[in-house]
Amino acid sequence: MGKVLALILILSALAAGGAMYYLQIYAFYDNVELQPGRDVMLVPLDGGEAQPVAYSDFEAIDAGSSPIRYRACFTTKVKPDALAQLFTLTDKLEPRNAPGWFECFDAAAIGAKLADGSAKSFLSVKNISFGVDRVVAVTDEGRGYVWHELNKCGQKAYDGTVVGEECPARPEPGE
């Protein structure tokens, strides 16, 4: 009887582990529909309204379960140094990992390019979701990457410290 119970527990644990893995890596992600002229936008140096950047070969994934699961890849003919003359740079140099099956987005390789200066990261959309900014990185080779990153307000809101007056009002659930 003990062997049967142990076998049931082991099989249950394996099934739960497999389900958890599938849910985290595959289940909640969806492909993002192309929105020409709105997929890749950057904030000008003067802080005005975000402006579109010419791009092609765009592919993106997102998940409604978290505002920081967005990842995208694209190509552009505009060089990062030219973009830096017009648009706001950001200090976000460590992109978040993407699921392994989204092959165009390699966070370690992108981070290495940002660290060695062969890529630059830009602010794309401030507070795309409460406390979350969209970041765009462009390499010297013309590859571009997009991800969402917690900003200072988001870090405060999610670590439990007082948000303060400098942050926008947090929307109520359902808004």
User: What is the alpha-carbon Rg in Å?
Assistant: 20 Å
Instruction: State the total count of DSSP E strands.
Output: 8
Helix/strand order, N-terminal first: HEEEEEHHEEEH
Output the strand order for the largest sheet.
1-4-5-8-7-6
**Percentage beta strand:** 25-35%
Low-pLDDT regions: none
- Span between termini: 54 Å
Structure class = alpha+beta
Major β-sheet annotation: 6 strands, antiparallel
| Rounded average pLDDT | 88
DSSP summary: helix tally: 4
Overall spatial form: globular
What percent of the residues sit in helical stretches (DSSP H or I)?
25-40%
Features:
175 residues, six-stranded antiparallel β-sheet, 28% helix, globular
What does it look like?
The protein is α+β, with helices and mostly antiparallel strands and 175 residues long. It is built from four helices and eight strands, in the order αβββββααβββα. The strands form two sheets. A six-stranded antiparallel beta sheet has the order 1-4-5-8-7-6. Strands 2-3 form a two-stranded antiparallel sheet. The protein is globular and about 75 Å long.
Topology:
Elements: H1 2-27, E1 29-31, E2 41-42, E3 51-52, E4 56-63, E5 71-75, H2 80-84, H3 107-116, E6 119-129, E7 132-139, E8 143-150, H4 152-159
Antiparallel strand pairs: 1-4, 2-3, 4-5, 5-8, 6-7, 7-8
Summarize the structure.
The protein has 175 residues and is α+β, with helices and mostly antiparallel strands. It has helices at residues 2-27, 80-84, 107-116, 152-159; strands at 29-31, 41-42, 51-52, 56-63, 71-75, 119-129, 132-139, 143-150.
